[in-house]
């Protein structure tokens, strides 16, 4: 059918033309990369020898057809007996993965002068096979991930003047020789190795755009990043032992993503305050105690969309969020915050998710109804696992709020003003509190509420509690002390899911009713 459609549209039917030999190359398979493409993807998996590959593919494709060849999960014991030149193919991409290769004879790789992409990932190579790389003068991408490499020497990538993308992740690399990396690199992945120091190896990489250093044993990045990081857009240095951010970050004006989670950072040190293009800042699982207000850490971060500060030791935000005009997600879970004011998010019109769970918040302040810019529209607010006894009406008028989690607090009652104005609320979780009644839900109108979770409280009776919940579909009231249910509990409730009538389900397990 797809061939017929391509014919009708006047498109070249690449799959039928280029892969007409698919029966002849069995057990290898082939498919066209995409319509109108001149590249054929050829896969040979679980081959018993390289001889079998040669016999299957030799002279099966025209020499002007670009071939992306993948040989995986195969035995290559007879590698020495053949060369890729025997295939008679124009191999532009070559992947040799999961083949248990430990040595690569130079002669085998003859005939790969057009190869731009080489993957040797998931093998057992003790060192970089630089002798075969000389056979590929136009190589742009090299992947030697998860292959047991132990060191990178200054000869490994010598004379590779076109190499732009280098993946060395998941090895056992503990040593980097100075000047071992080609200055042409744009993307470099050194993650999940055993590096304790970068040995000035990256200082001259002025073209670098992405740098992955995650999962190593680095204790400092001071004076180790490119001297001129004008093009660096992404830096991932999570899961190391860093105690501070490198001051050089102040000079990297094109930074868009910074990942420093799972380190030992104590503060930000004013390193990112001028990163105007920064969109993602992940600092979870550190030891950050404060956000410095004297030199506001976020002064010019008006492009920041995602701020992850969970699992730190923050006691206060010091009003530091004000400059973050593009912020969409704020994660502050598992800190030491004792109070949160909704005034802290004043003017953050794009903010949609706030996670304040697992703190020590006992007081909410700063009603949204008093904000100058009421168009702030929080969609999800997580306040579970705190110390709230009352809401003090702080959530009144939080426009656009759809999910509100207040579970695992110390709430004893919901006051008349606590839920007023939450016209978009769909999910309300007040489970694991100390509520004795939900009477206020009969007086407060929540026209969009579909799910109510109030299990593990001290509720004793249900009378007209659902009267203000006209579209409720699920109410979990299990494990309370409910002894009686009023006849007209759900008389004004008509479950609607996606605008269709449904069935109201009330769960009462573990009650005395």
From TrEMBL:
Pfam families with a match to the protein in the record: LRR_8
Cleavable signal peptide: 1-16
Nucleotide-binding found in the keyword field: no
Gene Ontology CC: extracellular space
Keywords from the named record: Leucine-rich repeat, Repeat, Signal
Name recorded for this polypeptide: Podocan-like protein 1
């Amino acid at each position: 059918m797809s061939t017929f459609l391509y014919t009708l549209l006047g498109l070249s039917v690449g799959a039928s033309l280029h892969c007409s030999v698919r029966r002849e190359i069995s057990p290898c398979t082939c498919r066209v990369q995409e319509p109108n493409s001149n590249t054929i993807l050829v896969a040979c998996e679980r081959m018993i020898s390289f001889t079998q590959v040669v016999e299957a593919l030799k002279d099966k494709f025209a020499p002007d057809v670009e071939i992306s060849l993948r040989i995986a999960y195969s035995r290559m014991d007879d590698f020495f007996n053949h060369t890729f030149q025997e295939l008679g193919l124009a191999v532009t991409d070559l992947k040799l993965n999961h083949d248990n290769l430990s040595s690569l004879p130079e002669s085998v790789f003859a005939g790969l002068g057009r190869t731009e992409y080489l993957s040797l990932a998931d093998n057992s190579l003790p060192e970089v096979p630089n002798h075969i790389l000389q056979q590929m003068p136009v190589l742009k991408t090299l992947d030697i991930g998860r292959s047991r490499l132990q060191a990178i020497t200054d000869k490994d990538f010598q004379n590779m003047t076109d190499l732009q993308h280098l993946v060395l992740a998941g090895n056992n690399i503990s040593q980097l020789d100075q000047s071992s990396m080609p200055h042409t690199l744009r993307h470099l992945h050194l993650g999940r190795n055993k590096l304790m120091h970068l040995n000035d190896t990256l200082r001259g990489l002025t073209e670098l755009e992405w740098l992955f250093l995650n999962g190593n044993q680095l204790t400092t990045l001071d004076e180790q990043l490119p001297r001129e990081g004008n093009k660096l857009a992404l830096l991932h240095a999570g899961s190391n032992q860093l105690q501070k951010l490198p001051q050089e970050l102040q000079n990297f004006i094109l930074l868009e993503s910074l990942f420093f989670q799972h380190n030992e950072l104590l503060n930000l040190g004013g390193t990112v305050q001028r990163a105007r293009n920064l969109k993602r800042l992940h600092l979870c699982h550190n030891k950050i105690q404060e956000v410095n207000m004297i030199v506001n850490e976020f002064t010019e971060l008006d492009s920041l969309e995602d701020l992850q500060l969970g699992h730190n030791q923050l006691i206060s935000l010091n009003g530091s969020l004000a400059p973050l005009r593009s912020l969409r997600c704020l994660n502050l879970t598992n800190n030491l915050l004792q109070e949160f004011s909704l005034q802290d998010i004043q003017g953050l019109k794009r903010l949609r998710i706030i996670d304040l769970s697992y703190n020590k918040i006992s007081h909410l302040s700063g009603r949204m109804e008093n904000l100058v810019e009421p168009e702030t529209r929080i969609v999800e607010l997580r306040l579970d696992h705190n110390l709230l006894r009352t809401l003090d009406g702080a959530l009144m008028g939080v426009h656009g709020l759809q999910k509100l989690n207040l579970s695992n607090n110390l709430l004893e009652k919901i006051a008349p003003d606590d839920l007023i104005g939450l016209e978009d609320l769909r999910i309300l979780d007040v489970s694991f509190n100390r509520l004795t009644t939900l009477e206020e839900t009969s007086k407060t109108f929540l026209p969009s509420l579909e799910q109510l979770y109030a299990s593990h409280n001290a509720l004793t009776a249900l009378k007209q509690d659902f009267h203000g919940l006209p579209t409720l579909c699920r109410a979990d009231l299990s494990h309370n002390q409910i002894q009686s249910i009023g006849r007209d509990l759900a008389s004004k409730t008509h479950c609607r899911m996606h605008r269709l009538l449904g069935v109201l389900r009330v769960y009462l397990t573990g009650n005395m009713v």
